[in-house]
Amino acid sequence: MSIWWLIPQYLLYGISEVFILVGLQEFFYDQVPVELKIFVISFIEKATSRKGQDSWFSDNLNRAHLDNFYWVVSGLRVFFHSFFTCTLQGLISKKIEVLYEKGILDNLCS
Length: 110
Hints:
The chain is an all-alpha fold and 110 residues long. 75% of the residues lie in helices and 0% in strands.
């Protein structure tokens, strides 16, 4: 497997990180209990090491499957970025609609 397979994943990761990372960090530092953080880590280890295979995060880089991890992360980020974009468009259109109803946009445009 070539290292060039990581380029699209890193591009998607970098683009989506701009939009998501700050909000996620604030949420996980402030809202998620420590017990849940430990549970998530153990769940990921069990889910990625099925049927006696090494985990995606193995100590041996030759047996680790970090490419799978980056594909999953990239897919999740594309999904959440799309969800965020759709949600944001709905909120913006409502705000513009309210401004238009109040006549504020008419004053700005003339």
